[in-house]
Amino acid sequence: MRRSALRIAAVLALAGPVLAACGSGGTPNPAADGANTQAPAPADSALDPNATARVRLVLEPTSLNLTTTAGVALEQVLLDNVYQGLLGVDTNADNKIVPALASGFETSPDGLTYTFHLTPGAAFHDGSPVTAEDAVWSLQQVLAPGSKQPNAKTLATIAGVAAPDPATVVITLRQRDTNLTWALTQRQGVIYKKGTDFAKLDTTENGTGPFRLDGWQRGSAITLVRNDAYKGAKAKVAKVVLSYIPDRNAANNAQATGQTDIETAAEATLLQPFTGNDRFTVLRGTTTDKYTLAINNAKAPLNNPAVRHAIRRAIDKDALIKSLGGAGVRLGGPIPTSDPGYQDLTTIDPHDAAAARKALADAGVGELKLTLKIPNIYPAAIGDVLVSNLKDAGIELTVKQQEFTAWLSEVYTARDYDLSLVNHAEPHDVGNFATPGYYFGYDNAEVRDWYAQAVAAPDERTRTDLLARIGRRVAEDAGADWLYQAQTLTVVRKGVSGAPQHHTSSRLNLAGIGITK
Predict the structure, then answer these.
(1) Residue at 281 is within a domain
(2) Pairs from 402-410 (Cβ < 8 Å, separation ≥ 24)
């Protein structure tokens, strides 16, 4: 069997924040130039083990149930901190896959059998040891008919899961699956205690991570407390209060006045109080945040590719990024810069309002009135720029801001929309365009075939080439528009160390945060 590089001492994935720097095209690492870094973490003896870290977040989850509720707001808080899978990711190392509840694994030469070895001493928060039977049961629930797990399809190649002994899990596949290990790092790979009543997970938990859920004050904050029984590297603070402050000005004020220690998703145009101020550090980090303009491919006249291309050509992405303080890079396609298959596709549908207007006329579309549905957590400037740009191309756009729960219901679930804007923060999600039932309404048989080939690819180069082919085809079909890839800005007060710096919209490992005495 081929031995995995993960066959090392079990460690926890240490996660980090997210946003970007302005440019005309994507770069492999949009945060590399001029990125601020934190000072080296002080020795543990200099930290206050009884401290409380207060962290500002934007989007509050509607439930804490990872088995039924979609959206990265849950993953951001719960993965790595409260729940773990066999594998995790290190966001400080470009989302490298690392050990979690498995200390390592081996793969058979044909790529159809994965053998995982559980980390010794791992336990649930109720004190029960984590066993292979728990892992088998958890994965079987994802695969079971009627599963409500939003990401269940990513494990569809699994033919069986077995526990030959209490510390070993064997996964057998129907076909090679290059996405398997990545999928196991996500919510669908979380290991629950066998027999867990998923219906009770909306407000309770029995995870395995370095933090336990202490309370959820809806509309305000989620509080986590250190799991002192944790066998891995313990959290450096006793408590973390995650305060949901969607208003950017209010968040800035909270950080400036000491109500929060860390402000994630800081507004680029509002950094003046912190820039050059020795009481704060502003961290810039990479993300997979794709601010995606969904164009309802299943609804006339948007089912006409010419109309979708016209909409894309009408939008001045550089002006949009500038209006946001430079907090983004051009993308041009569905694959972000750090994901396999990325290529610079920004030359497709360059901004040209006159060409957009002509394309609509050539398509026989006269007066076009569209509505944009956008969650109210996003800057109003985005809608303002889109209204102005589309007007120049002869399109009348009405912006409808709504609560995120309403967006989930109307757009994501019911697909009742013309245009929609949302941050697709998830990495490795180009497969959404190979899923006709997804809310984009995009359906291309070749893309579906290429994605299936990529999943079963015999090597990484073949997989990457196929994903790149998908990215280009989706962009050439104007399956959606990608306004920019965000870069994270995180403000950290003096005396706080270990703040997550990269990919914080989708994963926020809090265990490394320390506060000096």
Answers:
(1) no
(2) 402/373, 402/374, 402/375, 402/376, 403/375, 403/376, 404/59, 404/62, 404/71, 404/375, 404/376, 404/377, 405/62, 407/373, 407/374, 407/375, 408/62, 408/70, 408/71, 410/373
Query: CB atoms < 10 A from the CB of 347, how many?
Result: 10
- Each residue's pLDDT tens digit, 82-101: 999 999 999 988 899 999 99
- CA 73 from chain center: how many Å? 9
Name the residue among 72, 104, 106, 105 with its Cα closest to residue 91.
Answer: 72
For residues 184 and 202, what is the distance between their CA atoms, to the nearest angstrom? 22
Examine residue 102 and state whether it is found in any structural domain, yes or no.
yes
Classify 239 as helix, strand or coil: strand
CA of 60: how far to CAs of 224, 251, 259, 476, in Å? 15, 14, 18, 35
Q: pLDDT band at residue 36, thresholds of 50, 70 and 90? A: low
In DSSP terms, which residues pair with 399 in a beta bridge? Answer: 372
**Helices first, then strands: H and E counts in the chain:** 11, 22
Reported as a single tens digit per residue, the pLDDT across 454-504 is: 999 999 999 999 999 999 999 999 999 999 999 999 999 999 999 999 999
Q: Extract the tokens encoding 256.
A: 């400036």
284 φ, ψ to 5°? -110, 135
List the CATH number of the domain containing 355.
Answer: 3.10.105.10
Cα separation, 299 vs 186, in Å, equals: 32
pLDDT of residue 153: 92
- Confidence (pLDDT) at 309: 98
Structure tokens at 179: 């996405």
**190: domain CATH number?**
3.90.76.10
Reply yes or no on whether the pLDDT at 21 is more than 70. Answer: no
Tokens 């899978």 belong to residue = 85
- Contact predicate 187/68, CB 8 Å: no
Inside any domain, residue 279: no
Q: In this structure, what are the phi and psi dihedrals at residue 252, rounded to the nearest 5 degrees?
A: -60, -45
CB atoms within 10 A of CB 178: 21
Tokens representing 63 are 């439930």
